[in-house]
Amino acid sequence: MRKSVLVLLAVTMLVWVSGAFGGQIVMDGSTTVLPFGQAAAERFMNENNGVKFSVSGTGTGNGFKSLADGSAQIANASRFIKESEIKACMDKKVYPVPFAVALDCIVPIVHPSNPVKNLTKAQLKDIYSGKLTNWKEVGGADAPIVVVGRDTSSGTYGTWQEMIMDAGEKTRVTQRAQVTSSSGAMMTAVSQNKNAIGYEGMGYVGDSVKALSVEGVAASSAGARNGKYPLARYLYMFTNGWPEGELLAFMNFMLGREGQKIVNSTGFVSLQDVK
């Protein structure tokens, strides 16, 4: 996974901190990170009187905008920050610091009735570019493929573009694709259309859709950690500079045993195996 040369590698070590708690922490950004980010914030508030969180999921790109304009202290992201976003932050004297807080697998999803079980990265690219338009071309029924994607503010969209559409040479998504604005909307769109295909983080993938293998490898925690699953990625929280006070305490909590257990409980993958 490519990373910008302008920002340090994701910080994952824990830092001990003590001190009084007070004030509000605003968290905004990725809808992929939202489930465990919100759960961790609620647990942290319960254990630390006086700390308040405001949590929303408006998309990774919007999270970076909120960090840049100072309206959020934490930007949740399902991809690494772009150089243009770094510049936008630094122009406002905001210095984004990345914390890798979880791992994830982007999972191609179809309607449960679809007989297809596996697709290659090349087939996914051809489907999303519009080169393949019928399920029979990839071993399915004689039916049109309905492509469902995410809006451009989505970090999952950005990662899909990098891993699938930009693999080999940059290719545009077909103009016939349906565009969804959130993870929940993606799940609904695919679950209600027997000819649809979409993609989502594994924490969102439930029984209402069918998960496909990629290159013969099914999404799994082990596959995310060892890199054998072809569409594995890190999930991030970004702060403005090195965090202090209750914000630093929360990042320590997020990266600690309890925070990583929350990651697992929401269907995503902790950085290390925790019980």
Main traits of this protein?
D-Maltodextrin-Binding Protein, domain 2; alpha/beta; 275 residues; disordered N terminus; nine-stranded mixed beta sheet; 11 strands; globular
Please describe what this structure looks like.
Strands 1, 2, 3, 4, 6, 7, 8, 9 and 11 form a 9-stranded mixed β-sheet that branches. Strands 5-10 form a two-stranded parallel ribbon. It contains 9 helices and 11 strands. Helix 5 links the parallel strand 6 and strand 7. The chain folds into 2 domains: about 130 residues, 3-Layer(aba) Sandwich (D-Maltodextrin-Binding Protein, domain 2); about 120 residues, 3-Layer(aba) Sandwich (D-Maltodextrin-Binding Protein, domain 2). Helices cover about 30% and strands about 20% of the residues. The protein is globular, with a radius of gyration of 19 Å. It is of the alpha/beta class and about 280 residues long.
Assigned CATH architecture of the largest domain: 3-Layer(aba) Sandwich
Mean pLDDT, rounded to whole units? 91
Portion of residues within helices: 25-40%
Largest sheet: 9 strands, mixed
Radius of gyration computed on alpha carbons: 19 Å
Number of DSSP helices? 9
Head-to-tail CA distance between termini: 28 Å
In CATH, the topology of the largest domain is named: D-Maltodextrin-Binding Protein, domain 2
Structural class: alpha/beta
The outline comes out as globular
The level 1 CATH classification of the largest domain is Alpha Beta
CATH superfamily of the largest domain, by name, is Periplasmic binding protein-like II
Q: How large is the share of residues in beta strands?
A: 15-25%
Domains counted in the coordinates: how many? 2
Query: What is the H/E string?
Result: EHEHEHEEHEHEHEEEHEHH
The overall strand count is: 11
pLDDT < 50 stretches: 1-22
